[in-house]
Amino acid sequence: MGLHKTAFEFFDACDSGRGWEICGQFCHDNAGFSAQCGALSDIKTLEGYVEWMRGLMIPIRDGRYDLKAFSVDEERGIATVFAVFRGTHTGEGPVPPTGKTIEANYVYAMEFDGEKIKHVTKIWNDAHSLVQLGWA
Q1: I need a surface site. Which of 92, 120, 121, 126 has the fewest CB within 10 A?
Q2: Residues pairing with 80 in the sheet
Q3: Would you say 40 and 113 are in contact if contact means Cβ atoms under 8 Å apart?
Q4: Edge-to-edge, what's the strand order for the sheet holding 116-124?
């Protein structure tokens, strides 16, 4: 399939909230996940993160990404994505619907082992996003 296609297919499925049953086909079963932010500090597996993203689509029903940049470093086996996540809190979630919107910049670094993703690192300012939504 190629790193570029695999990375994009994973990214699109993950950030559209389609869950592990779709995203898992692009990843090693034990793929890892990391992010230096409080909202995701307990998530260590990529499957856990993908399911977290699926859950995010419950309070933010119109959640969507705006892809800004996408690159693949074939030599190092890394794909990077820069995007903006947008949506409005209209569904049930950690607090009653606030009607507030989110516009959050984030980056994924997807590390490959062969043709499948072995680890994803997310770079995201969760504190800013939580304030935008009225969750903090």
Answers
A1: 92
A2: 71, 109
A3: no
A4: 27-35, 116-124, 101-113, 78-88, 64-73
